[in-house]
Amino acid sequence: MAGRHMPSLLRPRSIQARTALMSAVLSLVFLTVIGFSLDIAIRNRIHDHLFMETQRVATDWISSMGSGGVPEPPAGHKDLVQLVDSRNRVITASRAARGLPPLTTPFPTGQDPLQYRIDCPDEGRCVVLTAVRVLPMQSRLFWDGEPHAVYAGRTEPGLLASRRLELFIGIGVLLMTAGWTWASWRVAGRTLRPVREIRERVTEISVRDLTLRVPQPSGRDEIAELARASNHLLEHLDTSVRQQKHFASMVSHELRSPLAGLRTQLEEALLYREETDPYETIRTAVRTTERCQAIIDEMLTVARVRTAATGEPELVSLGALAREEAAARTDGVPVHVDVEDEVTVLGNRVQLCGVLTNLMVNAQRHACSRVDVTVGRAGGEAVVTVLDDGDGIAPEDRERVFEPFVRLKEGRRRDPKGTGLGLALCRVTADTHHGTLRVEDSPRGARFVLRLPLPAGVSPVGAGQALSR
């Protein structure tokens, strides 16, 4: 069981804790390496200094040995100086080294007369010393040629002997690791603070209220981009939910009246069987059902275009499509098509065909004598204009006509059976194709203008060849 819980202990859930833990581990390893290197450097520096001092003491004493004999050893209270013979017996020593055995063994050889050594007895501090062999001329002068040597040493400082250096370095490593870990914890906490605020705000947001937005920090880092993307998504969700609620309320309103009338007629037929013509009741019910079915079908079409993911787009020639749809409009006022420039767009052919059909049908319904359809381009957009010579649309109603189930008085008079979803479907289709559909000014009649982006890198000739294949 302990093995199962170990990974969770070593890997905390919090990103802040994981960041601090990783920083602590890395800083501890890094600072330990630095502390180990610093310990070696300090020890070597102190030892080198002691070697230089002991060598100076030994060589100065040897240099003072002349015709006047062997002088007394140096009297420094820190200097451990001994004169030993070839059998490593102490001949004379300084006051600090009297009574001590030889500071080091073995006796230095003739091939290596100067040696640096660190001797550590079983008890006590280590001795850093220099062993120097006396010159042969001096050995012949004083000891009949028997080799002698001078041992000059100093006791290792307490900082090194008691391991206090390692203790101080270890404490420093731990303090610096703790400081670095604390700094990493604070920095990670400050960095992740916007994330916590976003999480807290997201928990407050519900489907019933999508007006709230997450806090958006300044800057262009990943957290700021996440906040902007989240707000963008919330805005789209809010718009979609509001459209869905509005759409559902309008659908229920449009269906409530015919269904209520249908129910009333059926109830009257049941209550007044002898006074009611059953065939007339059935015919009326069929007409009401057809109207309800038309509303539901167009409602589903609008919902499908708005929410369904579009398939693979294809090259569509708007000029050819306009000619085909105009040729199919044999009833009503004539439709004239003028293709100023062959333009091709990427999109759903069936949906774009539905847009042109609805615009032409709407224009024929309100036109007096003719409908003009113009296909061209303006800048980087394909432009399709459908113009009728009717009474036109008032400026305050030019956006209302694209709302679902909105029908102006003239439209209800000319087409009592209409549902008011045709232009709404056209606007939704234009939006899904990253285009626009608006009612623009015209000297007479209503002028609907559809603008769609032109695909990059597709020429009209190439598009026509692609369509012909």
Automatic annotation (TrEMBL):
Key words, A-Z: Kinase, Membrane, Phosphoprotein, Transferase, Transmembrane, Transmembrane helix, Two-component regulatory system
Subcellular location(s) per record: Cell membrane
GO molecular function: phosphorelay sensor kinase activity
Annotated transmembrane regions: 20-42
Pfam families: HAMP (PF00672), HATPase_c (PF02518), HisKA (PF00512)
InterPro entries: HAMP_dom, HATPase_C_sf, HATPase_dom, His_kinase_dom, HisK_dim/P_dom, HisK_dim/P_sf, Sig_transdc_His_kin-like_C, TCS_sensor_his_kinase
GO terms under cellular component: plasma membrane
Catalysed reactions listed for this entry: ATP + protein L-histidine = ADP + protein N-phospho-L-histidine
EC number: 2.7.13.3
Span of domain Histidine kinase: 250-456
Keyword Phosphoprotein: yes
Domain HAMP span(s) in chain numbering: 189-242
Domain of life: Bacteria
UniProt keyword Transmembrane helix present: yes
Protein name, entry field: histidine kinase
Organism: Microbispora bryophytorum
Lineage: Bacteria, Bacillati, Actinomycetota, Actinomycetes, Streptosporangiales
